[in-house]
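Quick one: structure tokens for this chain, please?
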Amino acid sequence: MKSTPEGRSLLVIGHPGHELRVYGWIGQTRPIVCILTDGSGSDGTPRLDKTLEILHESGAEIGPLCGELSDREIYEKILRHEYDPFDILCERLARLITARDIDLVVSDAIEGYNPVHDLCEALVRTGVGIARNANDADSNENADKKSNGTPRSIRHCTIPLMNDPRPATGSMEAAHHAIELTPLRFKQKLEAMRSYAASAGGILQEEVGDAFHNFGEQAFAREYLFAAAAPGQEPERRFSRQKPFYETYGEQKVAAGRYQSVIRFREHVLPILNHLRKKVSDTRADAQG
């Protein structure tokens, strides 16, 4: 197993609290961190302050995208098929990656649990693609090459949020980096997870409790960064055969009178993913033309 290589890193998460999955890596790497939403959920109570406290204590740098959208706002944009906000987000990420010479971008993984988590990976995928294309189009070698004369690479890795944080036994997982936590750092991570969950309450507390129950505390003693899927192997492709969890969950909430609408993969999320994919191909064509 390899630890994270040297280079400037960027972490992009959909909600505050996701940083806890890579608590040790953040303390080791001190990345720039961007957060898409304020984590206010359905009750409208933001949880950004606790995350910022953790990030500051870990030595991370808060990026220019920091909880500007509430969860309600981003869900409404998804339901209304509004592409412009997502265009702006990925373009801002691309500019940040280029301006700060980012080598590694880590994001939430697409798991079908929450549409914001899934769009986070897609937005980062797009931002990384645009930044790569911009590098290819740059004629000034000193601007896009390192001192050894090789082109600057930009890697994209993901972190699971609801699934087992470890590679599946015997699986042919994509290459990943592993970060082994010291006993002290592991203890601090568990304490931070419990404290954060207790202060947030509600569904987040349930999710942390479920994670410890399903995987065991020891599963979080080592952190993995999984290489993002190659084009044509995107994880969202499986939702053409099965409903993502958030769609089934939304149906239950609508039936119970809690939600007014269901965010559906085919109707709402897939069009955004296709739009973002086209942005990358368009910028690639511009770079080659």
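The first strand starts at residue 9 and ends at 13.
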